[in-house]
Amino acid sequence: MWRKIKQELDSIRGKLIFFFLLSILFIGGVTWQCQKHLLFVSIKSEEEAYVSNLAGQIMVAMEDDRERCENFLHQSCYNKNLPLYLSTTYTDYEKVWESARNIDYFVKERMAMMPGIKAVQICHTNTTFCEDGKNLFYVTKDEMKECVWKKWIFTQKRFGIIQEEVNGMFQEEDAYIKLIFDLDYIFGNYLQENETFNGNYYIFDENWNYIAGTDTGYGPNIDASAYSGLEKNKVYRDQKRKLLITNATETSWNVIVEYPMSGYSSNKVRAGMAICAILIVYCLIAGIFLISYIQRVTGRIYRIGTNMEEIGSHRFKILDQMRGHDEISRLENQYNGMLKKLEQTIEEMTEIKTKRQSLEIKVLESQINPHFLYNTLGVMRWKALGAENDELCRMIDNMTTFYRLSLSKGQGLITVNNEVELIRAYIALQQYRYDDCVDYHIDVEDEALQILMPKMILQPLVENIYLHADIVLEGKRKIGIEIKKREERIYIKVRDNGNGMTEETLYNVNHNINLSEEHGIGISFIYSSLQVFYGEEGKMEFHSILGKGTCVEISFPTQTKWEASGTALGQNTGRAADESFIG
């Protein structure tokens, strides 16, 4: 019995049924756990949004009132008459009391303009002026220095104090105005017209000192440590099921809004019924779908397995094309594609075998023909020496060098030194042909001489210069070849001052497209060689200005792509694998 159960679980059908049962248990557990959170859906959608909006309104109103108080103090300190009253040196007692009456009138006027002000006190350092203990007070210079300007100070009697220096004082006299506000009157009446809100709000300063609130009996006794650690602009729920919303203003004052929560029982019933209904519907639909889907999936997989067994008997059977985009359909399509590629591969291998036999014959011929060519050139050189024709001897020597290095025993890589020797021999032959009409210069760094590179890379470029750049027509023309090694790359530049290329031709050679047989065989050969030995790391780029000349830049790594990857092919064709590989 246990063996059958294990076999069933090992099958796809058993796994699907097993995971279906697990999903039922998981969804049931998650939904029951989510029941608690669903109880707060209505609160989040209604009460939290309402209280959050109300907290924002309180914060904006508080900021406006605070700014209004501070601006009122600032305007009072810029009264143009106060400096005259407070800075004058008095000798006449009647002028003193006249100035005091004017200041008393100023104070009454300011208090009438700003409800909520408990007192306006003007403190000065003028020893010739008076103090009345109500509005006017005398302070020393040292006391002036200890004052804090434009900062709210809160007293235990529920008053807020701000003070600022009087502007425009003269004769080295100083003065400041102190405004004393009733905090509950200024900041505690924001909810008088809101009849639907049955909570409270409290305002604290940046040090969590109580300023004002709706509950004047409870507010001053609040333990600030209970709120100081709360994150700003976030909703909290305490043990008494209240919503706590904190907001921080730009002036670092804090607003706490408390609001009682309700509506638990009805939400609990609705959540329980919804959870049960969801589970029942899910089980029915998922069970029906699972049974039908298991039959379909296992049948299609069994058919693929049967056809794959027939491949071993060399019977290739293409599956019927299935409509669909699921994983099984992709597997069927890939299976059909694999069979087609397998048939194509067999055909290609047969064709490759035929070509390989033909290539082996050509290789044998190429090994015979160079010997005949070298022997013939040797006889020609011997005849030239007999006729004492030194120039012809040099031509034969250059031709022998050129063909020896270009054939290089059929190998694809030669050293940079041999490639330079090959191109020198080729240019020397061209110089005989065109009567030394071209100046050439070859500059090779010593570090690059023993690096391997694809052979016959430079010759097609130099040949194109002679054939297509009109390099031999007018005056002395120049060809420059520069080879450098930088870090782990070889950089080659081939320059000429011929007639250059048109923009269309330059685009074609840089993209290896639309090249004529006359112009493009050599360039395509170079692109192919770089691609074969170096892949994307082998690069060639043409730069040309019509009428001024052309510069070709070639770069490639010091190691072929096989050497860099350490593959078996690299071991057979790499730098040190076979000394006979170096031409």
Features:
alpha+beta, Profilin-like, 583 residues, 5-stranded mixed β-sheet, single chain, Sig_transdc_His_kin-like_C, flat, 17 strands, 17 helices, 5 domains, 5-stranded antiparallel β-sheet, disordered C terminus, 53% helix
Count of alpha/pi helices:
17
Quickly give the CATH architecture of the largest domain.
Answer: 2-Layer Sandwich
Shape estimate: flat
Structural class: alpha+beta
% residues in beta strands: 15-25%
CATH class of the largest domain: Alpha Beta
N-C termini distance = 74 Å
Stated plainly, the CATH topology of the largest domain is called Heat Shock Protein 90
Q: Summarize the biggest pleated sheet.
A: 5 strands, mixed
Uncertain segments: 363-368, 568-583
- What is the H level of CATH, i.e. the homologous superfamily of the largest domain? Histidine kinase-like ATPase, C-terminal domain
Order of strands in the sheet with most strands: 2-1-5-4-3
Helix content: 40-55%
How many discrete domains?
A: 5
- How many E-type strands? 17
- In angstroms, what is the radius of gyration? 49 Å
Rounded mean pLDDT score: 76
Textual characterization of the structure:
By secondary structure, this protein is of the alpha+beta class. The chain has five domains: 2-38 and 265-309, no CATH class; 41-52 and 188-262, YNR034W-A-like (Profilin-like, 3-Layer(aba) Sandwich); 78-187; 310-345, no CATH class; 438-581, Heat Shock Protein 90. It contains 17 helices and 17 strands. The protein has helices at residues 2-10, 12-38, 41-77, 82-87, 93-113, 141-145, 183-187, 225-228, 264-311, 327-386, 390-407, 416-433, 458-468, 503-511, 517-534, 561-565, 568-573; strands at residues 117-124, 136-138, 153-154, 159-165, 175-182, 200-204, 210-213, 235-237, 242-248, 254-260, 413-415, 438-444, 452-454, 477-486, 489-496, 539-545, 549-557. It has a five-stranded mixed β-sheet with strand order 2-1-5-4-3. Strands 7-6-10-9-8 form a five-stranded antiparallel β-sheet. Strand 9 and strand 10 (254-260) form a beta hairpin. Helix 10 (327-386) runs antiparallel to helix 11. It is flat. This is histidine kinase. It is found in: Membrane. The chain crosses the membrane at residues 12-32, 271-294. It catalyses: ATP + protein L-histidine = ADP + protein N-phospho-L-histidine. Its EC number is 2.7.13.3.
